[in-house]
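Backbones bend. Our protein:
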Amino acid sequence: MNERLEATVSGRVQLVMYRDFVQRKASGLKLTGFVKNIPDGTVRVVAEGSRESLERLLARLHKGSLLSKVDTVSPSWHPATGEFMKFVIAYE
């Protein structure tokens, strides 16, 4: 059964290839969803897939990209909606 992970990541996570890092890791784990920058300087991650894969992604969110410095990751768990086809970087 699939689940949904929603997380807000704070720290030095914009302009340091963090979204690209998350997109590559999530796609490699066969997850669907998106990652996007938020105007307040945080990054929002919404991912769906198996709990095991989501927990692996969550661990990677804490580490971040080479140039990033993650201060906090605030995760929440929900039932999957199945609304995503792949994992993308959102530019809204």
Remarks:
- The helical segments are 18-28, 51-63.
- The radius of gyration is 12 Å.
- The mean pLDDT is 97.
